[in-house]
Amino acid sequence: MKPLLQARDLEVTFDLGRHGRLVAVDRVSFDLGHGEFVALVGESGSGKSTTALALIRLVPPPGFISSGRLLWWDDRGETPVDLLQLSPGRMRERRWRDIAMVFQGAQNALNPVMRIAEQMVETVRTHQAMPRDEILDRAARCLRMVRLEPSRVLRAYPHELSGGMRQRVLIAMSLLLTPRLLILDEPTTALDVITQAHILELLKEIQEQLGLTMLLLTHDLAVVAKTARRVLIMYAGRIVEEAPTEDLFEAPYHPYTRGLLQAVPTLRGDLAAKRPIPGSPPDMRHPPSGCRFHPRCPYADELCRRVEPILEEAGGRRVACHHWQRIHQCAPLPEALQ
Ligand code: SF4
User: Fold this and answer.
1) Residue 67 phi, psi dihedral angles, 5° rounding
2) Which of 161, 216, 236, 300 has a CB 3.0–4.6 Å from the CB of 304, allowing a cystine?
3) Residue 327 CA: which ligand 1 atom is closest?
4) The pLDDT of residue 336
5) Which residues are bridge partners to 81 per DSSP?
6) How much is the pLDDT for 231?
7) How far, in whole angstroms, is CA 326 from its chain's centroid?
8) What pLDDT shows up at residue 151?
9) Which phi and psi angles does 235 have, rounded to 5°?
10) What is the C-alpha to C-alpha distance for residues 143 and 166, in angstroms, rounded to an integer?
11) Cut 0.90: pTM above it
């Protein structure tokens, strides 16, 4: 069966005028299957949010999609539509209806002087003509799905709701036009741990109930473990590892993935064992030669400094590292996995 969406060699460039150009997303390729829950993981600045914005063609200037294809397969799975070839008007029609996105920190983007009901009506009417009563019925159904009481929430102004409730309102809003793909950018950041866990549980439930495809963007592998079936790891604008979640947690192949896992606090281990990855992500105006992770990688050698590794098949997953086999066989697992 064809996937719902195939990104092929997707590249996003920022034109910085006299400071040159910055390639924030560099030849990224991946598939999103029908009804699949996929996580895109990386540190801040890795390019994951820009990748997501490219999927809905909302990269803000001076950024632009400089190459690639975004193949969207319809229900019959016969001929894909390249979303990058659609006119701006046609693409606007597909946003929310086919692909919806809950942006990072969006809880604060709700209009503070409008009741939730009006914001939901406006959201739908921007994309589709529909009687108000029908929209409110739909809104009530979506709010119930995220376990909010419609009679109370629809009448409320955003400041009358907690951060967790506002986040759930946004998720409900994103479901109003029954999209096929829902992208969530760090949906639980800035929420307390209990609310976080509750929202992740809800997302999983909604995804299973509606058979939606979900792409969750996060820097936190602990969030991934609770939700996604498959994980894409992104570093410095490139995908460096892709694997089913279970396999990735059992045996990460890429040193960057190992580093991310090492940084996750364990239930048994003491907090001192939590080790952040040394160094910082590269300045993307001047990315390192060869493997972009080499200045931070404990296994880097001359080959890594000179030659960029390609993303290759590695037994049901993909990994971009010259030495993944040796590292996988010989290096001890991160503390989080022992
Ligand atoms: Fe480390 Fe080299 Fe692999 Fe890059 S290619 S992750 S530097 S071992």
Assistant:
1) -170, 175
2) 300
3) 8
4) 53
5) 72
6) 97
7) 30
8) 95
9) -140, 130
10) 11
11) yes
3-state secondary structure of 96: coil
Neighbour tally for 205: CB within 10 Å: 13
Asked whether the predicted pLDDT for residue 272 surpasses 70, the reply is no
* Ligand 1 centroid from CA 313, angstroms: 16
| Rounded alpha-carbon distances, angstroms, from residue 38 to 111, 158, 225 | 30, 30, 11
What's at 69, amino acid-wise?
A: R
Q: Name the nearest CA neighbour of 201 among 97, 193, 99.
A: 193
The sign of the torsion formed by the CA atoms of 280, 282, 288, 291 equals: positive
* The two structure tokens encoding residue 330: 């010989």
Residue pair 35/212 in contact (Cβ under 8 Å)? The answer is yes
- Find the 122 Cα to ligand 1 centroid distance in Å: 49
CA distance 181 to 188: 19
Cα gap 334→338, rounded to integer Å: 7
Distance CA 160, CA 148 (A): 13
Taking a C-beta distance cutoff of 8 angstroms, is the pair 316, 322 a contact? Answer: no
Ligand 1 centroid, distance to 4 Cα (angstroms): 32
Per-residue confidence (pLDDT) for residue 105, from 0 to 100 = 74
pLDDT of amino acid 12: 98
Please count the residues of the chain: 338
Query: Ligand 1: which of 240, 307, 321 to mutate, judged by most atoms within 8 Å of the beta carbon?
Result: 321
Q: Write the DSSP string, 106-156.
A: GGGGS-TTS-HHHHHHHHHHHH----HHHHHHHHHHHHHHTT--HHHHTT-
